[in-house]
Specification:
By secondary structure, the protein is mainly alpha-helical. 70% of the residues lie in helices and 11% in strands. A three-stranded antiparallel β-sheet has the order 1-3-2. A hairpin with a 2-residue loop joins β2 and β3. α2 packs across α5. The longest helix is centred in the first third of the chain and has 27 residues. It is globular. 13% of the residues are buried.
């Protein structure tokens, strides 16, 4: 296996382990919510004036899929839709009080996971961090360009 393959395999392995380990606690603490719903709650909680287009671009999902998730979250009383006074065409989302509770639970879990993994990150030098961040940025830009070549431009629909 060449270095590139080793690196990609390593990223995939670390990511899969992290997802598996986090999933156990997430499913217990956020019972009744699918991962895609929780990610939408997180995005809406962090980004003012979230809408279907912004969510679909962020998650590389179709607007139709995001609309279905949003409708489920509205029915659950987690988000509500609204319109701007000067723009009656676009529909935006915000968290309800119940949605803010789910958001805080999710945020608390992320802080817990960060704390769990702190010992690893404390061993990384500034130079190592800089190198890794530089690589992730470079590779991300490459993948963005490949997506754009497909005519999707960060929006699968």
């Amino acid at each position: 296996m060449n270095k590139e393959d080793q690196l990609i395999a390593g990223f995939r392995d670390v990511f899969n382990k992290m997802v598996w380990l986090n999933k156990l606690k997430m499913e217990k603490s956020l019972k009744g919510y699918k991962p895609s719903e929780v990610h939408c709650i997180e995005y809406i909680g962090k980004n003012a004036d979230s809408n279907v287009t912004k969510l679909s671009g962020s998650f590389y999902m179709t607007r139709g899929a995001i609309s279905k998730i949003a409708q489920k979250l509205i029915k659950k009383g987690i988000i509500e839709s609204y319109q701007m006074p000067d723009n009656k065409k676009e529909i935006y989302f915000r968290l309800t009080e119940q949605g803010k509770i789910v958001y805080k639970i999710h945020d608390g879990l992320h802080k817990e996971f960060h704390e769990r993994d702190r010992t690893v990150f404390e061993q990384i030098t500034k130079e190592q961090f800089a190198g890794m961040l530089s690589f992730v940025t470079l590779y991300g830009r490459h993948l963005d360009a490949e997506i754009k070549k497909l005519g999707m431009d960060n929006n699968p629909e």
